[in-house]
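Record now logged underneath.
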Amino acid sequence: MRISRAIADLLRERIVPTFLRAGKAAEHYAGVMREIGEGAKTAARTAGNADLMGAGQVLASKAAPVSGFNPVHGFGNSTRTRLSAIYGDRLRISGVGPAAEQHLRDLELLPDSFHNKLLGYFASHPEGGIDIIDGTVTDILTDLRGVTPRGWPPGSTWDDVPGLHDPSTHRVIIGVGPHGNVSLAVHETGHAFDDAIGNASESVEFRQLYDKMDITKPYYAQPGNAGRQETFAESLAVWALNRHMPPDYRANSFADKFGIRTNKQARGALLDSYFSNLQHRLEPHPL
């Protein structure tokens, strides 16, 4: 969920609480183990999806499982230490429950080159960074209480929302509660990453890609830039959690998430290639 510019402007004028300021699987596992380091363990994770298509689904439904499994890091001090080493005091963890542990595991699935871009973005504002909490966004941003988020049905408010990205302060808040994302942590951080690399969701490249997708799920087909921004953020989450899986699996994961009904493999593969190519462009290359 990306907070609207209008609300972001409002937040700049209000005082925010200051206490948070200060088979084939084996070969893929082997690749994961090399990348994530010495102390990591492979775990099976069933990714949950839910459509944000109505208040009942948003707030009460069970997420429909995506078939298959995704390798993730085992949670422990190594995960927290590695991310803290990257972000320093820009990673603010007050959450202590299992949701906070999952958020950290998911964030560690992003490539280092993506984390480096995010660090620069967060460091460019005094309030920038990632807050991992045990509540919802209005526990911190009290000005949003009673306000309906962009793209959500009437009757829903920010009090129901577990995460957001505030572009006015370069701040990501990741909490606890029902959501329809493959990964709440990577989706919200994905909005920050979008801004960090120059509003990629508004680039000609991504606009043309988005127009080819035939997305049927309303939340990701919102008019204007909203649909593109939400699709970019969720696509990053789908890519990060599945990038070590077989190509067909990755393509289907994109297609299923966005309700792509025709040419699913081909269209899903285009989204997968976009983020893989983006990683290649961002990583340092020897001269």
The chain has one domain: 5-15+26-44+62-282. Residues 264-282 form the longest helix (19 residues). The radius of gyration is 18 Å. The longest strand covers residues 129-132.
